[in-house]
Design a protein that fits this description.
By secondary structure, the chain is of the alpha+beta class. It has helices at residues 6-16, 31-37, 46-55, 62-70, 92-113, 118-131, 140-147, 160-170, 190-193, 202-217, 222-229, 233-243, 290-293, 302-305, 339-356, and strands at residues 2-3, 41-42, 74-78, 84-88, 138-139, 174-176, 186-189, 247-252, 255-260, 275-278, 315-318, 321-326, 331-333.
Amino acid sequence: MRTLSTDQVRWLRVRAQGLAGGGPGSVAASVTDVVRTAAALQAQAAGPARVQVWSRSAGLKAADVDAACASADVVRTWLMRGTLHMVVAEDLRALLTVLGPVNLRNGRRRREQLGLTDAVCDRAMEALPKILAGRRALTRAEIVSELTDYGIALDAKTQAPPHLLAYAANSSLICRGPDAARDEPTYVLIDEWLAAATHPDRESALALLATRYFAAYAPASVADLAAWSGLPAADAKAAVALIRDTLEEVDHDGTRLLLPRGEQGVDPKPPQRPYRLLGRFDPYLLGHRPRERDLILDPSFAKRVNAGGGMIAQTMLADGRVVGTWTATALEPFGEVSTAAREAWHEEREALAAFYA
């Protein structure tokens, strides 16, 4: 069994996420390639999702991300941990096979608090295929309005509409479609929006989820997979067992971690581009259980990255460690940084501006 240092574990994770820059860890200039490499991108908002693609690519523009969403090359819906993610289209049905039932169970109590009884949800599941038929892409407000024709009255000022849409999404009925003006989400029927396909069996879906995860976040543990995906521990263990022959076990500080066999190199090297900028909600910060995040973020600075309420700040990386936050107008390091590092981060900001040009 190989033993990896903390630096080596961190460098491998940077490379797996496509953040190393150049060499084996570089990502082809395709939105689909980027999203597949990362397993999934956080997609609570369109802007941060675009930046996540930029951080992992070369030669793309923000408009390319929007085009990939509009053409259904990539799809956004509620998946890991019940949050909105962007995934490649061919993975969607498999991920919903595994994560949809988990999210539906976890959301039941909140739906009941909002008056979304089983009867209301059942009526909505009958109405939505009629409302969205013909590849219609409607906003939340438009859907709420048309649901009234089917006897379903929702208060648009409450959380009932998004929770009902999440219910339909995790039931494999709808997903996000192309954004309307000002990045307003629209919703479409999955079976009209995507190419026809059958849902895979649960074992195949679990195996795909585990394969995608370890390709994007290794070295990692079964517990890390559970924390990232939101799967119950037993399901995460079963998923890993299905692909165990494809994984290598390594030791890090007395802990056994797994990574894809033969793909990560014998002697992990530092990233070729050590100084990087990441957008809000970047999955690099969210791919492991909290204790593992100490490898990339000093706990004493954790509140500056996540002050609460689920907001994850834009961060500055140095060799895979979070060393500060940033805004459109300022770099905010946690301590002293070298002139070379500051210049590299300024170059990153210029490259991001070009991405939006």
